[in-house]
Design a protein that fits this description.
homodimer, elongated, alpha/beta, 11 helices, 2 domains, 4-stranded mixed sheet, 60s Ribosomal Protein L30, Chain: A, 6-stranded parallel sheet, Alpha/beta knot
């Protein structure tokens, strides 16, 4: 049984403040909960139906605390419109980022991404393309927001997310010969640009792109050209869409 | 002033049945409403604040009926959490699709896309890549669903959407030498495949991919390879993400 206090606690994880104070985040949905348990991330609480626990051979050791509960209790605790059979409360990891982790890698940097669905989709894209580090400006949406976790589809357990000063990062990277790319309307055509297999690609805010201070530090400005007929096409691509196209273009050349 | 009846009518456009009966769909958001007015699609009703009408120099001829109304009235009629200053009711176009429209073009076909956000994002991607026709299986989500319109960001006015039998379409296309591509787990690596500048690319359902009957008809099976380290990566990409990567790959080669 899931106590009223536990239900309240799970509900409260919708708020960043509570997540930060408690050092945990909420994971929902059968598949992602299973990924959480298998991930090596410490699971503080696993609340699930008896059939879910049985079918997936989850014992009392699957988490620090395993609670068998009813669908109604899950529904009360859930943030989802159509809750599934399991919820997990997982400890927020404390990743350290060193320059050595970025050297020889292709990493993503996100400047003030606001929409949780976009951030989650981008983390999933990063995972697909073997990107280990996603670097977010400190004003970006919190990656432990339940909507980010949902959209990331488990990729949150495989990609390390860091919040830091991107302008400082861009300076340091370029000083150590790691190229920094960014997408700009006036950038060079990505399809005909020279792209390094290692570096950092900066993607900007949904409405405003990369902030001026950061933009000033980026040496390699690239652009996805539109193939629309005449001047009639869309003004821009969604940021997650643009990230996917850029990652595909950087990565396919390494094959 | 927006009458109670008009507010009720606008609200009812959330339902496909009403949209089909009335032959109209709902457009919200300042920018997309302006695109609707400029699109050449007949606008049956434009409801907006006086400042919106004035700032954008919209007169009584901007739509069949122009109603100046208060933010409160817009809010009542709106489907959005944060309504803006304008709403338009636009006539659903009756596009005819001929084989000649597909010959010499690169078109998208969508098999049972269920999520309105995905469909809207895909229409926006199609617009960016100069794709004129998007062909949806009859069981796909309705493209005039307000959430599709939102996500398409005005691209709905530039891309023609058709609902039809995709298996029949694939047969006819291949009979007339138009290649049909589809994404499959067992498909050939898209980055090293021969891709025709003309043809139809089929993308499948979010959970289940392309349906077996249609899959059996597709001669060119392609796949976006994962670059994840080991076997640890995400199982799949979101369908809109995958569509963006495929369109980028088909189109960049034509440049």
């Amino acid at each position: 049984m899931l106590s009223k206090n536990k239900i309240k606690f799970i509900q409260s994880l919708n708020r960043k403040k509570t997540r930060d104070q408690e050092g945990v985040f909420l994971v929902e949905g059968n598949k992602v909960v299973l990924e959480a348990v298998a991930s090596g991330f410490p699971v503080k609480l696993l609340a699930a139906s008896s059939s879910f626990l049985k079918n997936n051979r989850l014992t009392a050791t699957a988490a620090k605390e395993v609670v068998e509960c009813s669908p109604e209790e899950i529904k009360k605790a859930s943030q989802l419109k159509t809750p599934q059979e399991a919820i997990a409360v997982v400890e927020i990891p404390t990743h350290q980022l060193t320059n050595a982790q970025l050297a020889g890698e292709f990493s993503l940097a996100l400047d003030f991404i606001q929409d949780p669905g976009n951030l989650g989709t981008i983390i999933r894209i990063a995972d697909w393309f073997g990107i280990r580090q996603v670097l977010c400006s400190v004003n970006s949406v919190d990656c432990y927001n339940p909507k980010v976790i949902q959209a990331s589809m488990g990729a949150i357990f495989r990609v390390q997310i860091h919040y830091l000063d991107l302008a400082k990062l861009a300076n340091e990277a370029q000083e150590s010969q790691l190229p920094v790319y960014g997408t700009f309307l006036e950038g060079e055509n990505i399809y005909t640009s020279n792209l390094s297999p290692h570096g950092i690609l900066v993607m900007g805010n949904e409405g405003n792109g990369i902030s001026p201070v950061l933009a000033g530090k980026i040496r390699h400005k690239i652009h996805i050209p539109s193939f629309a007929h005449g001047n009639a096409g869309s003004e821009s691509l969604n940021v997650a869409t643009a990230t996917a196209i850029c990652c595909s273009e950087f990565k396919r050349r390494v094959v």
